[in-house]
Design brief:
It contains 27 helices and 24 strands. The chain is α/β, with parallel strands linked by helices. Among the domains are: 68 residues, no CATH class; 114 residues, b-12 dependent (class ii) ribonucleotide reductase, chain A, domain 3 (Alpha-Beta Complex), CATH 3.90.1390.10. The strands form 7 sheets. Strands 3, 4, 5, 10, 13, 14, 17 and 18 form an 8-stranded mixed sheet that branches. The N terminus and C terminus are likely disordered.
């Protein structure tokens, strides 16, 4: 027995270069386990791989390869699959969506709002396309809603609770008995929206909401995992009614749609420590949408910041402007400047997105150029009709709508679900091509397996039949190339990646790796689909942000260069979470969260103050290649925006067939040069679709997710961690806290999309 326990512990130890791995793994991916309290890495592998074998009908050889690559942490399934894969819950068709990080929905009816709340409650990231051609199909608002909360949460005994929402109508009075289930919450939300446009009522609906059947905070959710927390549910009905009442007599505009979606997102994440993941796409000429977040934060004469309470929920999602014509130079520079000042207003060039999503028709570069020219001129439908004369109308519509984005923008499609896997390149030898092929093969098989899902919701199933898509991603690309090319590659970066003879050779070798990997993925996915009678996806590769899974191996996130050579990484927990308590005993320090303030708005400093609700665990981190000779001379954090953009576009051209999720940091002086570069790249059809831009900000700001530190600071912090550490066995420490506390498992806390952009954009204070 002792030997067995030691074997489990050994198999659950993460790389020495990944100091944040234990906190992140046990917070995010490890489920409750009767024998040891929480699953070990080995047990998570057992559960998730078995789940893939069953749904994917994998051969013994395929299963063995996935097993080996996952246990070696070279190829991992999606974060969602790490949490729910192989569980009884995910085997039920009504829960299939819970296996997917990435979704997008066209908002054209009330059902779309309900579906997105359903997706959010299952932990999916929600994209919403809110252009006029969709939202103009919504019914006009006819009725003013007067909402009263009749009964509060948690009154009814468990055995007497309704599971589904019941609706009682007497004249213009409606009573909602909200059901104690995911569907119960969704039904009540969607019903409220439907009442606003219901022609049966004479302009006013008196709505009484009975929440007595809803289970109280802290009760365990036995299927999905985690605990109930309806703390914000009572506010949902009144806040949504307020939004709808302002639109009586007309249709909703795009910003009101955003608010309704985001108010539901607030309810879903309330009381939990994970962030919301959302993308809202609006038309480039929709002024209300473009300016929706302007002056969201306001500062008084004393320097205190407050957020506009009526628009607070807009923080739940990123906003992207869809351009169906190539933007002008002035539009590109203005968009970059707006993002520099607000972090919002990204451009998406829909033409390139739709061209990539129709690559099965565009088999030559000439055909793609003709397609893009037709798109920019507003003649793309004619192009499709001429070049595919037998194509059904519903497929034409679908193909022309494949510019929907998931929350971090790495997947393209229409009304889609997309499964992801991730190759950890920092774990792989750049000169071992067999190992690379095995890792990318395993990643390709793990995403292809979920193509066997058949969705209950008709629009999502129809989309999958027309356009099955998967996304194989990687993380640690920068680390991989440092290992492959050494200090000279870093010096080339510091010089701006110029087109010198050595620079041209570096770029050629980058392209060679990227192209080889892409070819492996498509070959494996297509061979799998052919054997199983599944339509081949026409695009299979992407780069996700990977702000969380990268921490399991200490990889630089996605394709990005690291934040610096050394930094403090802060990870969010609920106060007194047993994993956070284990972090304390493991030697890490804890500070209150950004939202924990005193009556005057000052940040609290004592993590054990009774007013504190959230903890940030602080972990000193350094890159794995920090001991490379002369590396201290390389100022990674000062690489220019145009240098980073050059590397990003190399990945976009030679690896990615969807889109590459990107966060490019820039200074004010770089606004115009970067705007010029984006304009030229779109103008010349070089593959640009969309990227996130944020101000590079070196001013001190408290308790950010990342804080760059010097070598001396790192060594001092690391020494203190080791001095405080009570044991090197994190699992043993955690097990003791699980026995001592009744604090429930808070469930999955990994957002569907987590990266520098997501974490900085949801901070509780503005940059400037």
């Amino acid at each position: 027995m002792v030997k067995d326990l030691e074997r489990v512990r050994q198999s659950s130890r993460f790389p020495e270069t990944a100091p944040a791995a234990n906190p992140v793994f046990f917070r995010t991916y490890s489920r409750r386990d009767v024998s040891v309290g929480r699953e070990t890495w080995s047990q998570v592998c057992d559960r998730t791989i078995q789940g893939l074998i069953e749904i994917g009908k994998l051969t013994a050889q395929e299963a063995a390869l996935i097993d080996r690559m996952q246990r070696q942490m070279k190829s991992l399934p999606s974060g969602r699959w790490l949490w729910v894969g192989g569980t009884t819950w995910i085997s039920k068709p009504e829960n299939f969506s819970g296996a997917y990080n990435c979704t997008s929905t066209n908002v054209l009816d009330w059902r779309a709002f309900g579906l997105m709340m359903d997706l959010a409650m299952m932990g999916c990231g929600t994209g919403a396309v809110l252009e006029p051609k969709y939202i103009n199909q919504l019914p006009p608002i006819l009725n003013r809603l007067i909402v009263t909360i009749q009964q509060g949460v948690g009154i009814t005994p468990a055995h007497l609770r309704r599971e589904h929402t019941e609706i009682k109508i007497e004249g213009n009075c409606v009573t909602l008995h909200v059901g104690d289930s995911r569907q119960g919450w969704i039904e009540s939300y969607q019903t409220l929206l439907e009442l606003s446009s219901d022609e049966r009522f004479g302009g006013t609906v008196r709505l009484q909401v009975d929440l007595s059947d809803v289970r109280p905070t802290g009760e365990v959710l036995k299927g999905f995992g985690g605990v109930a927390n309806p703390v914000k549910l009572p506010e949902l009905y009144e806040r949504c009614a307020s939004i709808l009442n302002k639109a009586v007599g007309r249709q909703l505009n795009s910003v009101e749609c955003c608010l309704l979606i985001d108010e539901a997102a607030v309810v879903v994440v309330a009381g939990n420590v994970r962030r919301s993941a959302g993308m809202r796409q609006g038309s480039s000429d929709d002024a209300a949408f473009v300016n929706a977040k302007d002056n969201l934060w306001q500062q008084d004469e004393n320097g205190n910041w407050r957020i506009d309470p009526e628009r607070d929920a807009l923080r739940m999602a990123n906003h992207t402007r869809v351009f169906h014509h190539k933007p002008t130079l002035e539009e590109c520079i203005a968009a970059v400047r707006k993002q520099y000042h607000s972090g919002e207003g990204a451009i998406q060039w829909a033409g390139e997105a739709i061209a990539r999503a129709n690559c099965d028709l565009l088999t030559t570069e000439v055909a793609k150029q003709e397609f893009l020219r037709a798109y920019n001129e507003g003649k793309v439908r004619q192009w499709l009709e001429n070049n595919a004369p037998k194509m059904p109308e519903d497929e034409i519509e679908h193909r022309l709508g494949r510019y929907g984005l998931n929350p971090c923008g790495e997947i393209l499609g229409s009304n889609f679900h997309c499964n992801l896997s991730e190759i950890h390149l920092n774990q792989i030898d750049p000169h071992n091509y067999k190992e690379q092929e095995e890792a990318f093969t395993a990643g390709a098989l793990s995403v292809a397996a979920l193509l066997n899902h058949k969705f209950v919701e008709e629009k999502y199933q129809k989309s999958r039949e027309l356009d099955p898509i998967v996304g194989v991603s990687f993380t640690g690309l920068f680390d991989f190339f440092v290992t492959a090319f050494g200090i000279d590659w870093l010096r080339w970066w510091q010089a701006g990646r110029p087109a010198t003879p050595s620079g041209i050779e570096f770029k050629r070798q980058e392209q060679e790796y990227l192209t080889r990997w892409k070819d492996i993925v498509h070959r494996v996915v297509w061979e799998y689909c052919d054997r199983h009678g599944i339509k081949r996806p026409n695009r299979c590769t992407t780069v996700q942000p990977s702000g969380t899974k990268s921490l399991l191996t200490g990889a630089s996130s996605g394709w990005h260069s690291p934040f610096g050579l050394r930094w403090i990484r802060r990870i969010t927990f609920a106060k007194n979470d047993p994993v956070a308590l284990a972090c304390l005993d493991y030697g890490y320090s804890v500070v209150p969260g950004q939202s924990d303030k005193d009556e005057q708005g000052n940040l609290l400093n004592d993590p054990f103050d009774e007013r504190v609700r959230e903890w940030l665990v602080e972990i000193p981190v350094e890159v794995a290649w920090v001991n490379l000779p002369e590396v201290e001379e390389i100022e990674v954090e000062k690489f220019s925006a145009t240098t980073i953009f050059d590397f990003y576009m190399n990945v976009q051209k030679y690896w990615t067939t969807h889109n590459t999720s990107a966060t490019i940091l820039l200074t004010e002086a770089e606004v115009e040069p970067l705007g010029q570069k984006i304009y030229e790249t779109i103008r010349d059809d070089e593959g640009y679709i969309s990227s996130a831009l944020l101000a590079r900000f070196d001013a001190p700001f408290p308790r950010l997710p990342f804080e760059r530190i010097s070598r001396e600071e790192y060594e001092q912090l690391r020494t203190k961690v080791l001095q405080r550490r009570k044991s090197d066995d994190f699992l043993q420490i955690l097990s003791s806290h699980l026995k001592e506390t009744r604090f429930p498992d808070t469930g999955p806390q990994d957002p569907a999309c987590s990266a520098l952009s997501c974490e900085l954009q949801v901070r509780s204070e503005p940059i400037r």
